[in-house]
Automatic annotation (TrEMBL):
<comment type="function">
    <text>Catalyzes the reversible formation of acyl-phosphate (acyl-PO(4)) from acyl-[acyl-carrier-protein] (acyl-ACP). This enzyme utilizes acyl-ACP as fatty acyl donor, but not acyl-CoA.</text>
</comment>
<keyword id="KW-0594">Phospholipid biosynthesis</keyword>
<keyword id="KW-0444">Lipid biosynthesis</keyword>
<dbReference type="GO" id="GO:0006633">
    <property type="term" value="P:fatty acid biosynthetic process"/>
</dbReference>
<comment type="similarity">
    <text>Belongs to the PlsX family.</text>
</comment>
<dbReference type="Pfam" id="PF02504">
    <property type="entry name" value="FA_synthesis"/>
</dbReference>
<dbReference type="InterPro" id="IPR012281">
    <property type="entry name" value="Phospholipid_synth_PlsX-like"/>
</dbReference>
<dbReference type="GO" id="GO:0043811">
    <property type="term" value="F:phosphate:acyl-[acyl carrier protein] acyltransferase activity"/>
</dbReference>
<dbReference type="InterPro" id="IPR003664">
    <property type="entry name" value="FA_synthesis"/>
</dbReference>
<keyword id="KW-1208">Phospholipid metabolism</keyword>
<keyword id="KW-0808">Transferase</keyword>
<comment type="pathway">
    <text>Lipid metabolism; phospholipid metabolism.</text>
</comment>
<comment type="subunit">
    <text>Homodimer. Probably interacts with PlsY.</text>
</comment>
<protein>
    <recommendedName>
        <fullName>Phosphate acyltransferase</fullName>
        <ecNumber>2.3.1.274</ecNumber>
    </recommendedName>
</protein>
<dbReference type="GO" id="GO:0005737">
    <property type="term" value="C:cytoplasm"/>
</dbReference>
<keyword id="KW-0963">Cytoplasm</keyword>
<keyword id="KW-0443">Lipid metabolism</keyword>
Amino acid sequence: MNKTFSIDCMGGDYGPQVVLDAAFHTLKEFKDLNLIFFLDKESKVSLDNLRIFSDRFEIRRCEKFLKADDSLLSMLKNAKFSTMKAALQSVSDKESSAVFTVGHTGPYFILAKKILGFIKGVNRIPLAVMIPSSNGSKVLTDIGANLECSATDLYKFGLLGKEFIKSVLSIDNPGISLINVGHEENKGTEELRNSASLFRKKIGNDFKGFIDADKIFTCEADVIVTDGFSGNCISKACEGTSRFIMSKFNKYWIVRKLISLFSDSADRYNGAVLLGINGLSIKAHGSSKEPSLVNALRTTYRFASKADLLMKNLNSIDFESNELQ
C-alpha cells in the first residue's frame, strides 16, 4: 500500500489551518503515513506543530482554490489551477493512494470523474457514508451526488455499496435494502419497484426489501440505498435533530453529557467516499472542526488500507448481466 494521501486543505468553513491541525494528530497516530498538503498561494498557515514530521509531509502551493460562495461556472473556470484539481491529479499520477477534501461537493464530483474516471459499467457515482447501527456499522448511499435516479442507478449503487462493505468491513454476504414509503412490495414509485426486481434477480436473499427511513439504523441490511435527494435530506435531518435537541436541553447537565457522547459518535463517521471511480476519494463535511476532521482522516486511512481489495472487488462487478430490459 502506498501510504501517502493528498489533502486539499481549501474550501472548508474554518480555513486550511484546522485541516493542518487535524493532520498533525493523524501523522502522530499512523507512523507509516505521509501527506501532501495542497494550499493556495495566498493562505497563511502555521506549520509549527507539523515540523516534527518534516520528513513525512510536503506543502504544494496552487494558484487558486474553489470557494463555496462562487458559482459552479466560476469554479469550473478556476478548476485547472486549483488545489482540488492538483490533489486529484496526484492520485491519478500514482503519487498518492487517496485524496481527501473539505471543499465544495459539486466541482469535486466533476473533477473526480474527469481526472480519475469511472470503473467499467459505471456512469453515475454515488456518495456513500458509514453510519452507526445497532450491530456495528453500515453504509448509506447515495447522500447527495445524484438527485434523480433510475431503477438501474439504484441497483448499481447497491452493488457498489455491497462490494465496498465487503472489502472494508469483511462482511461476506451483505444485505441491501431500499428506502421507500413502506415495506410492502407494491409501495413506492415505479423506479423503486423496478430496482427491487433487479436486486431480487441479481442477489436473491441478500436483498432485504424495502424499509422506512426510521429503520435505517436498526434494519438487518448492511447497505441502505436511496436517491441522492432523499439521502441528503435524511443526513441533514439527522444532523439538525441533534442540534435541536442540544439547543433545547443544553441547560441540563445529564442531557449535555448524553448529547456530547452522541456527537462524538457521529463525528467518528465523518468522511464519505465516492464509489465507482478509479481511485479512493474522500469528502469530509465543509463545516468540520478539528475533532471531526481527525476522525475523517482516520476513516481515510482505514479505507486506504483496504484500497487494493476494494478496487479489485469493485472492478469485478458484473453490472450488465441483469440489466432491466
